[in-house]
Amino acid sequence: MSPGPAAPTPRAPAHAPSRTHPEKATDTMAKRIDVSGLTAFYGGHRAIDDISMSVEPRSVTAFIGPSGCGKSTLLRTLNRMHEVTPGGRVEGKVMLDHEDLYGTSVDPVAVRRTIGMVFQRPNPFPTMSIYDNVAAGLRLNGDFRKKELDGIVEKSLKGANLWNEVKDRLGKPGSGLSGGQQQRLCIARAIAVQPQVLLMDEPCSALDPISTLAIEDLIGELKSRFTIVIVTHNMQQAARVSDRTAFFNLSAVGRPGKLIEIDDTERIFSNPSVQATEDYISGRFG
Amino acid sequence: MSDNALTDRPQVTGPPSAGPSLARRRLPRWTPALVVLVSVGLGVGGGSLAGWESRVQQGLIAALLSVIVTYALTSLVEDSRQARDKVATSVVWVCFAAAVVPLVSLAWTTVSRGAELLDGYFLSHSMGGMTNIEEGGGVYHAFLGTVEQVGLATLMAAPVGLLTAVYLVEYGRGRLAQAVTFFVDVMTGIPSIVAGLFVLAFWNLGLGFGPSGFAGSMALAILMMPVVVRSTEEMLKLVPNELREASLALGVPKWRTVLKVVLPTSMGGIATGVMLAVARIAGETAPVMLLVFGNPLINPNPFSGAQESLPLYVWNQYKLGNAASIDRAWAGALTLIAFVMLLNLLARGIARWKAPKGAGR
Amino acid sequence: MDLSHTSPAPTAPPPTPPDSDPSAVKGRAVHPGDKIFRGLSRGSGITLLVIMAAIAAFLTYRASIALSANSANFLTAFEWNPQGDPPAFGIGILAFGTAVSSVIAMVIAVPVAVGIALFISHYAPRRIAAPLAYVIDLLAAVPSIIYGLWGALFLVPYLDGLTRWLDRFLGWTTLFEMSNPGSPARSIFTVGILLAIMILPIITNVCREVFLQAPKMYEEAALALGATRWEVIRMSVLPFGRSGIISASMLGLGRALGETMAVATVLSPGSVFTWHLLDPGSGTFAQNIAAKFNEADEFGRDALIASGLVLFVITLLVNGAARYIIARRKEYSGADA
C-alpha cells in the first residue's frame, strides 16, 4: 500500500542525503561503531573510564548495568550529545566505520544527523503537528517538495508502526498522542532523516507494558536497517530485543563506570564469563 | 499492525554508498575574533575617514560589518545552514555588546564624575545658605530626607504587603482573593508619577495639607506595596505544605502556624523582597518631586514642611545647570546609586545566606 | 545517584501549593486568634483594593473639575494653557510624544533584549552567564533619574554625530529631517533611545527566565536530529518563549510610557506638532506633569491630574494585556505538562 518511491530529484541540495541506488543504500546504511579508550567527564568527575568495545551493524546491542554505571553517558558520547551537557568532556576514540567522531574537522551536527537518538521520555515538539514533527529533521537539511516530504513522512510513520493510528490526524499536535504513540512518533522522527545508527536511551521506561511491547517489536523490525544501541534497566527487555549485551558496573558510588564484559546476549544471560555479571543478572545486586 | 513498509523502505532517502563524510570544511576557531577585529578596525577607521566622528556610528558600522562578514565567510567556506547559525551567534553577541556599552558607560560616568565631589564634607553638609552657583555644599539633608521618607513608606507598605501576601497564600479563596491578586498586578504597573498625582489629589488638594516628607512616603508606599506582596507571596509558596500540615496536625492553630512556622521559614526571602522594594522606591523621583517639593535646608521632620530627597536633589541640581551644580548632581547621583546598590547587595546577600534549602537560586 | 543524566525533566517553576489542603481545617471551631489574624490579613488585602479604588476615584474627581472648565478639546488640542482665560489644554502633543518615544524604545529594546537573554541562556560560557545575569538584575534597579542625568549630560552630545548623519542620509523621509542641524539632540528620538536603554534590563530579565524555563528535553530532541544551535533555539526555545517575550515587552512598554525623569531631563519640550523626530519639541504625559507642576496653580494641577488619569488608564490597559498573556501561557503550559 505504499505510494511508490518518491522520484530522485536533481535539485536536491548537496548536503541533503542524495536519493540514489536504493539497493546499495540498504547495504551501506548501517555502520559499525568501534569505541576505544573512551573516558567521559562531567566537569572534574570521571563518569566512564577507558571503555573499548564494538557495536555490530544491523544488530541490537543492549547496555545494562546498575544506576550510575555510565551506560547512558556512554550512549550520549556515541552521537556527541554528551558534550552539550555543561561540563561534559570526552577523551578517546569513537570510530563510525572508518571515521573518528571526535576528529578535529568533524562537525558534531553532522554526527547527530547520522546517529539518531530516542530519549527516555517521549519528546515530540509540542508546538508542532504530528506531520511537522516527523518532517522536522528533514526540513533542517534542505528544502523538499511537498510530495517528497509527504512520502517520507508516511514511510517513517509506517516504519515506526504508527501510520495506521495517526494517518487521519497528521495535522494534530503530537502531544495529543498517548505516551507509547509519542515514543513511536519520536522514533519516526529519528528514522525520517535516515540515520545509520539509532541510539535509544531507556525508550520504554516511561511507558506501560503494552506500549513497551509495541516498541520492542518495532526495535526487532528496525534492526534490519539500522545499527541499534539501547540502554535499558530492564534485563528481560535486554534479553528479548538484543543480539549482543554489554554489562557495565562501577566499583563504588562516585567511581567511574567500567565495561565489565560484552558478548552475545544468549551467552551473557546463560553463561557469563565474569562473576559480577552473573550476580547482577540473577538479581543479587543493582 | 505495520505493513510492508520496512521491506520497500529505502527508495526515499539514503546516504550515497560511500556514506557522507562527517567532516566538513570549517572556518578556524579564531575566525570570529578576527572578524570582530577587522570590523571594528574598518568601522572606526572608515568612519573617521568619512568624517563620522561619533563613536555611536562607528560602533554601528562595526557591528553591521561583523555580521555581514561572518555571513559571507561562512556561506563561502561552509554552508548556508552554518552561515545562518553563525549569523545568529554574531547577532546575539552584537546585542550583548550593544547593551553593555551604554550600561558600562552609564556606570562609569556616574562613578567617575560623582567621585570628584563625593567626600565626607559632601555627605555631612546641606545646601543651607548657599547661592546656586557657589561651589561646595552637600547632600546630607537629601540623604536624611530619603531615609525618613523611605523608612515611613516601608513602615506603611511592609505590614500591609506582608499580610496581604499571607492572606493570598494562606487564606485567600474565591473572588476577593482573585480581585486582590489582579489588582496587585495592576498596581505593580502604576507609573510613579500617577501615584504621586493621587496623593496630591487626595492629601494636598483634597485635605489641604502642604508638601511634606510624609506625603511623599505615602506615594512611595503605594509603589512599594505590590512589590512586597509579590515577593512575599513567592516566598510563602515555597514553604512546603508538609510543614503546615505537621504543625496543624499537632493541634497548633492556624494563625500560630503561620506566625511560628511559615513566616520564620521564609523570613530570609521576605526580607530580601522588602529590601529590593526599598531599593526601588529610594530612587523614585517623580512622586517626591510633586509631594516633598525640595528644600535646601535640613528639615528633620517628615510630617511638616518641605524636605529634600536624594533623587530630587539630583534633579534640582541638574536643573540649575551651572558647573558647580552639575558637579553636585553627579555626586548626588553617585550617593544615590551607592545607596541603592548597597540595599540590593544586602538583599541578595540575605537571600543567599538564608535561602531555604531546596529553594534553589 | 544516577550520573547518566537520562531524564532531563523540564525545569518547571516552583510548584504552588494545591489550593485546598491547609485551610481544610478551617470551618471547624475557629480559634479567636485565628479570627483576628485572618481578619487582619484579609483587611490588608481589602486595603489594597481600597487604595486602587481611591486612586481611580480621586484622579477622576480632580480631572473632572479641570475638564469641565476646559475650552479646548482635551483629547486633540496641542496647547497646554490651563492658566489662560478661558483655560485651554489638551493632550494631543503628549499622546503623540508618548506613543512615538515608546515605539522607538520598543523597536530598539525588544530585539536587543531577546538577543541578550539568548546570550545569557544559550550562548555565553557559564562562567560569564551567571555574573552577567546578576549585573543585569542590578542594572534594572538603577534609579531613572540617573539614566536621565547620564542621558542629558552624556548621551545627548554623543548622539550629535548620529543625528546629523541621519539627517543627511535619511532626511528625505521627513521623520529624520532636522530643521536646525547642529542643535543638541534633545529630541523625542533621543528620548526613545534612552528609554530603550532603561527598559532593556527589565525585558532581558523576563525573557531570560522564560528561555531558561524552556524544557531541555525538546532542545535535546532538536540536537539529536542534527540541528545547529540556532536551529535548536528556533525549534524548541522560541516557540516556548513567544508569549513570554510579548508579556516582557508589554511590561517594558508600561515602564516606558510612564517614565518621568529620564524624559524630563533629556527632552526640550515644545507644543508645536512636528513629524521631525530629531527636532526638539513634543512631550510626554509624565514629562509634562514634571515640567508644568511647579508653575501650576490649583486648577493647573487639576489639569495635570487629568492628563495623569489618561496615562493611568493607558498603563492599566498595557499591563492588563501583559498579565492576560502571561496567564494564558500558564494555562497553555499547564495543559501541556
Which properties best describe this structure?
heterotrimer, A: alpha/beta, six-stranded mixed β-sheet, four-stranded antiparallel β-sheet, B: 361 residues, mainly alpha, MetI-like fold, 2 domains, 13 helices, 71% helix, flat, disordered N terminus
Structure description:
- The complex is a heterotrimer of chains A (286), B (361) and C (337).
- Chain A is of the alpha/beta class.
- Chain A is 35% helix and 23% strand.
- Chain A has helices spanning 22-29, 71-77, 108-114, 130-140, 146-159, 163-166, 179-192, 209-222, 235-241, 265-270, 275-281, and strands at 33-42, 45-55, 60-64, 88-96, 99-100, 115-118, 197-201, 227-231, 244-250, 257-264.
- Chain A has a 6-stranded mixed sheet with strand order 6-7-8-3-9-10, sandwiched between helices. Chain A has a 4-stranded antiparallel sheet with strand order 2-1-4-5, with helices on one face.
- In chain A, a hairpin with a 6-residue loop joins strand 9 and strand 10 (257-264).
- Chain A is globular.
- Chain A starts with 21 loop residues before the first helix and ends in a 5-residue tail after the last helix.
- Chain B has helices at 31-49, 55-77, 80-115, 120-124, 140-171, 174-188, 192-206, 213-238, 241-249, 254-282, 286-291, 310-320, 323-354.
- Residues 1-19 of chain B have low confidence and may be disordered.
- Chain C is mainly alpha-helical and 337 residues long.
- Chain C has a single domain (69-336), classed as Orthogonal Bundle (MetI-like fold), CATH 1.10.3720.10.
- Chain C contains 11 helices and 2 strands; from the N terminus they run H-E-E-H-H-H-H-H-H-H-H-H-H.
- Chain C has a two-stranded antiparallel sheet.
- The two termini of chain C are 25 Å apart.
- Chains in contact: A-B, A-C, B-C.
- Chains B and C meet through helix 2, helix 3, helix 5, helix 6 and helix 7 of B and helix 1, helix 2, helix 3, helix 4 and helix 5 of C.
- Chain C: Residues 95-322 form the ABC transmembrane type-1 domain.
Q: Write down how many β-strands of chain A occur, each being a DSSP E stretch of 2 or more residues.
A: 10
**Would you identify the regions of chain B where 5 or more consecutive residues have pLDDT less than 50?**
1-19
Look at the structure and give the mean pLDDT of chain A. 85
Helix coverage percent of chain B: over 70%
Radius of gyration of chain A: 19 Å
Largest interface: B-C, 110 and 104 residues
Q: Supply Rg of chain B.
A: 29 Å
Classify the fold: give the CATH topology of the domain at 30-122 and 196-281 in chain A. Answer: Rossmann fold
Major sheet details of chain A? 6 strands, mixed
Mean pLDDT of chain B: 85
CATH class of the largest domain in chain B: Mainly Alpha
End-to-end CA span of chain A? 47 Å
How are the strands of the biggest sheet of chain A laid out side by side?
Answer: 6-7-8-3-9-10
GO molecular function (chain A): ATP binding
Domain ABC transporter (chain A): 33-275
InterPro entries (chain A): AAA+_ATPase, ABC_transporter-like_ATP-bd, ABC_transporter-like_CS, P-loop_NTPase, PstB-like
Protein name (chain A): Phosphate import ATP-binding protein PstB
